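Quick illustration, no need to memorize.
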Amino acid sequence: MIFARPRSMLIAGSSSRLLSPSWTCYSRSRCRPSRSAYSTSSNEHHIQRSSLRGAKDGDRFREFDLGDRVFAITGGGRGLGLAMAEALMEAGAKGVLEHYHTTHNTTGSDNGRSYCLDRLETPHPDFMAAKHNAKTEFGGNLEYQRIDVRDHTEVENVFASIADKNERLDGMVAAAGINHVQSALEHTQSAMNEVMQINYNGVFNASTAAARQMFHHQQKGSILLIASMSGLIANKGMTSPVYNSSKAAVVQLSRCLAMEWGRHGIRVNSLCPGHIITPMVEQVFQKNPAARNTWEAENMLGRLAIPEEFRGPALFALSDASSFMTGSTLIVDGGHTAW
């Protein structure tokens, strides 16, 4: 497996904020690695390829190779979950699923297939663009299926179907989540229940469903729970006590599940991203335009993240590169919580 390294920085957007190495935006909310991050000529390709080979022409970074492994991602239809699904597919994963119809069957190459699960009735345009890119540029595939992570029985059935079809399930990312920006005194019971049911119950349901299939197929696996730095701090510019509490619960859940399943070879970790420019965060900016400047000022890098900057952490957590990491919380927040 050959991994190309970005070679330049890209300034994008009307505000000329610094984004990340060599990303090309192909829709308002989606970006992907720029072709400039890869070789642009056969000669250049040979140079890059040679630089990532060992002295005896062996591939480096084998620990990151997910060749033919099967993964499912909840919340994988857009934003952060979709960015991670693409990364796993590019690294050789056989499955990442976003769920929209239980009888939906996508044919295609088994060279890098990812199963993405989400609550949208039909795939988001960002997913369709990513699916096209997966097939044309990598010979892989992204599959989509609708799912309600609050429904324990449905989650169990979907994960069983994925594992039975592939005779394995190697990992899962629980990325489904919502937010309600309301003060504690104004927060309604219905809004609180919805946040907790998706952000905590949904993560619990997906985690246990994934682990159940790993036990059933007698295999090791890796589970990554998407928490947030909001589970570690109180956010300036965003009053959302229930959301923050739900993410703190996810961090603790990852530790407890790691303890339960570690001796069976199932690793469980949590990822705490900082502020990411996603549709959910854009809604915060609509209600509180000053929040963006506040968050950028509080960040050591002076900017917010984009979903694609979490491809690497996800690949690390789900690959053999992190084989001795479990019960850990990976904080990727641009230094926001390190002040």
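Confidence is low (pLDDT under 50) at residues 1-29, 33-52, 99-111.
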